[in-house]
Amino acid sequence: MRKEELQRLSAAIRDVPDFPKPGILFKDITPVLGDGELFEAAVRGLAETAQGTSIDKVVGIDARGFIFGAAVSMILGAGFVPIRKKGKLPWATEIESYSLEYGEAEIEIHKDAIMKDEKVLVIDDLLATGGTAQAALKLIKSIGGQVVAVSFFIELTSLGGRERLTGSRVEAILTY
Ligand code: AMP
Question: What would the pLDDT profile of 103-161 be if each residue is shown by its tens digit?
């Protein structure tokens, strides 16, 4: 992605202090989503992280990963699979507990969402501690998916999330 495009994307992200808890500097991506050119640039950048590989399924993580992931799956001609917070998926699921920057959570995937050895690109808006993505990778591997890359719009490098994802290719469009 061009440097000028990266600068425009970065300038559009709104830092909101103390949301949703004191001490958290929340990266609000809604100004990026609300600008057609910027949203397109972000989605294109994420799709390019899978260049050279044929992707069968794009997995988006609840909830902002759905926004980027669904758009990326259209570009790649791949199916879209949601990993959801507990209790939202209606069919048989695999479940994984994890801790995140501000709390504890459980996520689920439909057991039949990915076939054995299908190539998967995982998408989320932001990498913080890496707990969410680590749990997502466990779920995908538990049902037989092969993770090609885990790609984030934003990476907060100081939280060391990348180290929790060793063994997988980790990509980020913007790093702070
Ligand atoms: P983690 O599991 O710590 O990597 O947290 C990642 C998830 O929490 C992502 O799905 C983000 O949407 C959300 N998140 C964590 N920290 C922030 C932050 N500072 N700003 C915005 N979203 C965040």
Answer: 789 999 999 999 999 999 999 999 999 999 999 999 999 999 999 999 999 999 999 99
pLDDT recorded at residue 135: 98
Whether the CB of 26 sits within 6 Å of ligand 1 = yes
CATH fold of the domain at 53-175:
Rossmann fold (3.40.50)
**Model-level pTM greater than 0.85?**
yes
Alpha-carbon distance 25 to 57, whole Å? Answer: 32
**What Rg value do the Cα atoms of the chain yield, rounded?**
15
- Mutating to test ligand 1, I would choose from 62, 66, 126, 164 the residue with most ligand atoms within 8 A of its C-beta, which is 126
pLDDT attached to residue 38: 98
Burial environment of residue 163 by CB neighbours within 10 A (0 to 12, 13 to 18, 19 or more): exposed
CA-nearest of 103, 100, 173, 175 to 135 is 100
CA dihedral 79, 129, 171, 106 (to 10 degrees): -10
pLDDT of residue 70: 98
Domain boundaries, the chain: 53-175
